[in-house]
Amino acid sequence: MNKSIVFGASGQLGHCIKIVSEEMGIVDILFPNEKVANILETKLLEELFEKERPAFVINCAAYTAVDKAEDEIELARKINKDGAANLAELCNTYNATLIHVSTDFVFEGNQASPLNETDIVEPINIYGLTKLEGEKSITDTLDRYFILRTSWLYSEYGNNFVKTMLKLGQERPLLNIISDQIGTPTYAIDLASCILNIINSNSTSYGLYHYSNEGATSWYDFAKAIFNISNMPVKILPITSKEYVTKAKRPSFSVMDKSKIKQMMNFEIPYWRDSLEKCLSNIRSTAR
Ligand SMILES: NC(=O)c1ccc[n+]([C@@H]2O[C@H](COP(=O)([O-])OP(=O)(O)OC[C@H]3O[C@@H](n4cnc5c(N)ncnc54)[C@H](OP(=O)(O)O)[C@@H]3O)[C@@H](O)[C@H]2O)c1
Fold first, then answer.
1. Ligand 1 close to Cβ of residue 72 (< 6 A)
2. CA gyration radius, the chain
3. Of all protein residues, whose CA lies closest to atom 11 belonging to ligand 1?
4. How far is the CA of 72 from the centre of ligand 1 (A)?
């Protein structure tokens, strides 16, 4: 009834949606690989939509290399903007609802209170700009969409901050971590549950939503929590963004207000540290 197709199925979030859909007993969901589900290959996409006629399309496919995007503008734009536009157009033709994932990096980051969906967007890097262009190409084309902006995504799968810290913590006794960027970590398993719950709810409250875990922290305090929960005796020192220059600038504050999605879905969102404990516990149990 609610046949869904996940694009970007082999990425971190795609993987988490697979895990959660299995736990929830959802069977009518497809995870095609990039060979048959490349969001830039319109002919292939058309064939896939024609064959499967999905009710929901979940777009986890993206160009996510934030620093590299500064040098690969056209590729980042192709995937994050044109790819999203391709899916939006096909969803329009086939009457499917598009669930698309976007980012807190659409914000400049100079605000001091949690950002809501109507706050002004002003990306300060190419990744954020192309993701914003992707959002716009969807809202210009389609009525039936849910765009979920998320932040600081991590899980036991793929490459992310938690896994990088665990690796570096085993290699080095001392780490310098940025303390002047404030945001909210999001366990990709929680975001995956949110996406599947939207599908199950059959909600028609289409629109733009913010979803992250609850609370706020800095990368420094996030790293401290990772080592503390993992009982790793790593010393970490706080440093400023000026002391650790990256090719792409990052917003200094990107905590998002989740009131809208909480009201729409009538659910509680886990606090970031509680979800981190779950993720680390899963990582520990698979390492045994
Ligand atoms: N990670 C974060 O911290 C974060 C924060 C905020 C928002 N987000 C957003 O959350 C979503 C999921 O992120 P993630 O962490 O799961 O990213 P990810 O692990 O990098 O996964 C993205 C997937 O998209 C695939 N892909 C790239 N180009 C494609 C194409 N043309 N057609 C089909 N698939 C393609 C990638 O394949 P290859 O690996 O083969 O290129 C990869 O498997 C993205 O929209 C991202 O912008 C992420």
1. no
2. 19
3. 60
4. 15
